[in-house]
Amino acid sequence: MGNCCVTPTGASSSEKKVKGKKKEKKNPFFGDDYAVTNGSGNADKLWVLKEPTGRDILARYDLGRELGRGEFGVTYLCTDINTGEKFACKSISKKKLRTAVDIDDVRREVEIMKHLPAHPNIVSLKASYEDDSAVHIVMELCEGGELFDRIVARGHYTERAAAAVMRTIVEVVQMCHRHGVMHRDLKPENFLFANKKETSALKAIDFGLSVFFKPGERFNEIVGSPYYMAPEVLKRNYGPEVDVWSAGVILYILLCGVPPFWAETEQGDLVMKMLNPDPKLRLTAQQVLEHPWIQNAKKAPNVPLGETVRARLKQFSVMNKLKKRALRVIAEHLSVEEAAGIKEAFDLMDTGKKGSINLEELRVGLQKLGPTYC
Asked: Which parts of the sequence belong to the EF-hand domain (predicted)?
């Protein structure tokens, strides 16, 4: 739920959670009839995490400067008082968890990070704390910046480099799927470099929308980011194949600099097979790793893909940051009541329950709502 590590202040996760309409349970913090003791014997408070490391994070860590901010919380530089080792701490305010679904998302994010085995390309969980007002997730600190930012900064970007990046991303997908985890929100912003060294590892940092799954299990909740969302998500009938689709979109952007839905042609056999609209025919993560283009990554051309691709990547990255900053400003100035009102209006306009509205639905919806919204 929100980025885990170092992203520029202003990065928001609000734009990524395109969720379908779902019956929402009231946040227990706003009612008097819901309480969970979680073994504490105190039925007056709700605890989000099942087995946190502790209750008082400040007894072990110093929280420093702000590193990033999302829809539900703030990420701080975090220093171990005993060792001086630095981490990232994502503090999620319980007041921002407005529904039981939000609470379950935070709980599941921590459980998934605990469940996944150590992997060089997945950010590691150090500890989790929970006090009366917030949940604190202490994680490995990633200071190397976002994937696209480094590509743009290098100035020398090759097909070989793109192949290496894609291998890393798909290996993360394969690891998740082998352990019964579907990511559901793969996108460039959710991959950061561990440090600023040229040889730094690329790491997946955000499991806020991830879920556990069993073979053959299907899901119907609309989540993710529109650019990277597989078509079957909108049909509310999907499985882990959606992660391969998202990785395919990332690959296309790496090669061309723009999302494929902006272009007239597709590039490469691998991209087409990863973006097969039929999830049954789409490559699995293992099949992607076995594809000749990935297998022969070290033999791929080591010449720049061109200034046009680099310029497109830079423009795409800048626009993403601008959009996130705008959404964050809007979100920070909305009261709970205003946010609920906007969601109610959106649900009214979204007649097809797709998680998005077209121009005609917007026009009809505004007519129904009257001058207050116009």
From this structure: 337-372
